[in-house]
Design goal:
Aminopeptidase; 11 helices; alpha+beta; single chain
């Protein structure tokens, strides 16, 4: 995949100004296209519903959205709350072009203030230019909220990827969604006694888990998702309220992490294993599924750099259902460029 760099071309100010609020601050920046990007107000949300925005799919996929797809109407409560909670970090932008609502995006922090994600992204099918304008301003709004990077997960064959790349989002890695409907097989305990070698995850495990992340994640991925402990912690996707995390310890060293959660009756299992412990993958999968027996179905999202996990899930009765692409926009690089330079993206 080709990458993008920030060009040094000059920009002319055309159209209206972009004004947005984030964390209690209101900021105005020039909008350099014929479209107008601004905050989505409650009345705008109603108008979007009136013109049929609700029939468009949410292109942005989050951990919560995997378990429960989120329609446009789910944005309305958060937009309404923002009027009464002005310091809220959740921000929703709308792109208006020729008096028409063309695209809407909502952004929010992940697990910390330095890493944000696009949680909702709706667009008119013929709005490629509006989508690029909107995603460019998503980066600006996130940066003013304190973000160093913004994540965007979409379907691997999504038609918005070209517009996202022109807006400065870089392909980071691919993922496969696996799903098990009901109990495909009887749960077993395997040969490895995971119970006696695992403990509840605590804050003191952070440094050891960060080392595990470094040992299991390619450097090209870490350069975009986070190279320091704080960046890694901020970039992790929230597990949700009904979640459980365990740490695998062998001979005094942390060699794995197991997480599971339930949302809307759908269970999700996640795990990270040190390469030296790859042979234990089937047993660790069984352990992770044990607390999800009452879920209607169970899903697992597997990065493309962990192929052994996909094979273990298929042996357990899971089947690949979808493929995702994770893109990241770095705000650190953006902040070092003058405003005029940030308006032009050229392919290397």
């Amino acid at each position: 995949m080709s990458r993008f760099s920030l060009g040094q071309g000059k920009a002319q100010r055309r159209g209206k100004y972009l004004t947005f609020s984030c964390g209690g601050r209101t900021t105005s920046l020039g909008n350099y296209s014929n479209s107008n990007v601004r905050n989505l107000e409650p009345l705008d949300a109603v108008r979007c519903l009136a013109v049929g925005m609700n029939r468009f799919p949410n292109h942005a996929i989050t951990s919560a959205g995997i378990c429960r797809p989120q329609s446009f109407s789910t944005l309305i409560p958060s937009v309404s709350r923002r009027r009464f909670q002005p310091r809220s970090k959740v921000n929703t932008l709308v792109c208006v072009e020729g008096g028409r609502f063309r695209a809407v995006a909502s952004i929010r922090p992940r697990s910390g203030p330095k890493s944000w994600e696009v949680s909702h992204l709706y667009a008119d099918p013929d709005s490629d230019g509006a989508m690029m304008d909107l995603l460019e301003q998503v980066g600006v709004a996130s940066a003013y909220g304190g973000a160093e990077r913004v994540f965007l997960r979409v379907e691997a064959d999504s038609g918005i990827i070209p517009a996202a790349r022109r807006a400065g989002f870089f392909p980071c890695f691919g993922e496969t969604l696996y799903r098990e409907q009901g109990s495909a097989a009887e749960l077993g305990r395997g040969l490895f006694d995971t119970d006696s070698h695992s403990v509840k995850r605590r804050s003191e495990h952070d440094h050891a888990l960060f080392r595990l992340y470094n040992e299991t994640t390619p450097v090209k991925v870490r350069q975009l998702t986070g190279m320091t402990l704080e960046q890694w912690k901020d970039s992790r996707e929230p597990m949700g309220r009904r979640s459980r995390e365990r740490v695998l310890e062998l001979e005094g060293d942390v060699r794995g992490w197991i997480g599971n959660s339930v949302r809307s009756g759908v269970g999700r299992v996640e795990l990270t294993l040190h390469p030296d412990c790859a042979a234990l993958t089937p047993d660790i999968v069984e352990f992770g599924l044990r607390s999800l027996v009452k879920a209607k179905s169970v899903v697992a999202v597997v990065p493309d750099y962990v192929p052994l996990l996909g094979g273990a899930l298929e042996e357990r009765g899971f089947r690949p259902e979808d493929e995702f692409a994770v893109l990241v926009k770095s705000m650190a690089r953006m902040a070092r460029q003058p405003m005029a330079a940030r308006t032009s993206l050229v392919a290397e």
